[in-house]
Automatic annotation (TrEMBL):
<dbReference type="GO" id="GO:0005524">
    <property type="term" value="F:ATP binding"/>
</dbReference>
<comment type="similarity">
    <text>Belongs to the phosphoribulokinase family.</text>
</comment>
<keyword id="KW-0602">Photosynthesis</keyword>
<keyword id="KW-0547">Nucleotide-binding</keyword>
<dbReference type="InterPro" id="IPR006082">
    <property type="entry name" value="PRK"/>
</dbReference>
<dbReference type="GO" id="GO:0042803">
    <property type="term" value="F:protein homodimerization activity"/>
</dbReference>
<comment type="pathway">
    <text>Carbohydrate biosynthesis; Calvin cycle.</text>
</comment>
<keyword id="KW-0150">Chloroplast</keyword>
<protein>
    <recommendedName>
        <fullName>Phosphoribulokinase</fullName>
        <ecNumber>2.7.1.19</ecNumber>
    </recommendedName>
</protein>
<keyword id="KW-0934">Plastid</keyword>
<feature type="domain" description="Phosphoribulokinase/uridine kinase">
    <location>
        <begin position="57"/>
        <end position="255"/>
    </location>
</feature>
<dbReference type="InterPro" id="IPR006083">
    <property type="entry name" value="PRK/URK"/>
</dbReference>
<dbReference type="Pfam" id="PF00485">
    <property type="entry name" value="PRK"/>
</dbReference>
<keyword id="KW-0809">Transit peptide</keyword>
<keyword id="KW-0067">ATP-binding</keyword>
<dbReference type="GO" id="GO:0008974">
    <property type="term" value="F:phosphoribulokinase activity"/>
</dbReference>
<dbReference type="InterPro" id="IPR027417">
    <property type="entry name" value="P-loop_NTPase"/>
</dbReference>
């Protein structure tokens, strides 16, 4: 077994269609770059390459407590540096800055604070609690390279604080409840991800965090989930139809009637046709494959690991799905699975395993949540490179 520390260079095949030609720092890809719309011209041969010198805009949607912060730590880790809040600013800022990325939380566009919502009897998920006009105006301004004065929603006080200045970064990530709700904002996104955690798993995670770490009672957690549910179903969940990639987190099917919700079945649903990235695949693009990799190369204790890959439809659109049920016993053995994945956007064979090992302390590191979040991080790098025509060097 080859370990992640003795990696060999990736073949062109495993680098996928974003393989760079030439040796300079800024190189060219054979894909048209442009505004986030769909294209059917994927892999149809060389076309004019126009580098766009502007921030690349990424949207991440998920309910609260679904692992967005963990996900963002994995994504920013792909670009190196430690994300930090704006220095000298509001200590309760929700923004995280690193050399290449700025991650903002869309909670900052709540137009009703905690008390306003109570007075009007609306949840934080309701559209009337968000300022979509300002969100659209400011995402457009960042895309146009202009600094903004973004509001801050203070989760400690429940109030709206004075705004903070955000200058245009290379990659601007908007994460939160409604990144695809408003069409104006949606149309500005170059790549969109929806983190779809099933009710059972969400509940288990909430109990773990809010009971163990925040001292909430089981009843209050149940009540808060139930209170949010109608608005979640009405306003948050439907946004997944607009995502380029959806990470679905479900209870395992390997243990009948599993109550613990520790072993997860995770599905990466990848839309076809966004010119900014190519979907990855297992073994053979377009085939349907069920794979139990537990054998001589991969250690598997009960209940084992099962992969699935195949085409499907999602909200009437063509997608491919990669699924992993179970968890790794020895994370370094992920390299064996990685060797069977293609078009991953990794820059060398073993980069996925290396990233996973680097972040092995994060929740979900041994299962499909960590694996697919890492892959999405690499896809975001590919999206940036295609649009900007600039190469990002891998970081260890
Ligand atoms: N992949 C995972 N596997 C297992 N548990 C996870 C995973 N991701 C997150 N969790 C659990 O869920 C909790 C919430 O995660 P995180 O803080 O990243 O979510 P969030 O969406 O940013 O939450 P919020 O919006 O409420 O701040 C974590 O404390 C952790 O216990
Ligand atoms: O759904 C949420 C997104 O994070 C929060 O509940 C919402 O932003 C309101 O925040 P708070 O509960 O701190 O008043």
């Amino acid at each position: 077994m080859e370990s992640a520390s003795t990696m060999r260079p990736a073949s062109a095949r495993s680098l996928g269609a974003s393989t760079f030609q030439g040796t300079g720092r800024v190189r060219f890809v054979q894909v048209a770059a442009g505004r986030g719309g769909r294209a059917t011209a994927r892999r149809s041969g060389p076309v004019a390459v126009v580098a766009e010198d502007r921030p690349v805009i990424i949207g991440l949607a998920a309910d609260s407590g679904c692992g967005k912060s963990t996900f963002m730590r994995r994504v920013t880790g792909v670009f190196g540096g430690t994300p930090t809040p704006p220095s000298g600013g509001n200590p309760d800022s929700n923004t995280l800055l690193s050399e290449m990325t700025t991650v903002i939380c869309l909670d900052d566009y709540h137009c009703l604070d905690r008390y306003g919502r109570k007075e009007k009897n609306v949840t934080a998920l309701a559209p009337e609690a968000q300022n979509f006009d300002l969100m659209a105006e400011q995402v457009q301004a960042i895309r146009d390279g202009k600094a903004i004065q973004k509001p801050i929603y203070n989760h400690v006080s429940g109030l709206l604080d004075p705004p903070e200045e955000i200058t245009p970064p290379k990659i601007y990530v908007i994460e939160g409840l409604h990144p695809f709700y408003d069409e104006r904002v949606r149309d500005l996104l170059d790549f969109s991800i929806y983190l779809d955690v099933s009710d059972e798993v969400k509940f288990a995670w909430k109990i773990q965090r809010d009971m163990a770490e925040r001292g909430h009672s089981l009843e209050s957690i149940k009540a808060s989930i139930e209170a949010r549910k109608p608005d979640f179903n009405a306003y948050i969940d439907p946004q997944k139809q607009y995502a380029d990639m959806v990470i679905e987190v479900l209870p395992t099917q390997l243990i009948p009637d599993d109550q613990e919700k520790k072993i997860l079945r995770v599905r990466l649903i990848q839309k076809e046709g966004n010119k900014n990235f190519d979907p990855l695949y297992l073994f053979d693009e377009g085939s349907t494959i069920s794979w139990i990799p537990c054998g001589r190369k991969l250690t598997c204790s009960f209940p084992g690991i099962k992969f699935f890959y195949g085409p499907d439809t999602y909200f009437d659109e063509e997608v491919s799905v990669l699924e992993m049920d179970g968890q790794f016993d020895k994370l370094e053995e992920l390299i064996y699975v990685e060797s069977h994945l293609s078009s991953t956007s990794a820059k060398f064979y073993g980069e996925i395993t290396q990233q996973m090992l680097k972040n092995s302390g994060f929740p979900g590191s041994t299962n499909g949540t960590g694996l697919f979040q890492t892959i999405v991080g690499l896809k975001i790098r590919e999206v940036y490179e295609r649009i900007s025509q600039k190469e990002v060097l891998p970081v260890s």
